Amino acid sequence: MAKGFAKGVFTGIAGTVAAVAGAAYAFKKKVIEPEEQKAAFIEENRKKAARRRVSH
Which segments of the chain are extended strands (E)? Predict the structure, then answer.
């Protein structure tokens, strides 16, 4: 009986850890990475604009 309980607790903990890791990964892909890409795009445009100002 105790052996089965310990196995169930371990399985539950492993499942919870996997679910939290999956949620964190999905959040990173859906929210954080697009924001970083947008910031990089804006910074690149600023650099291009600065080069244009200097060249004229």
Answer: none
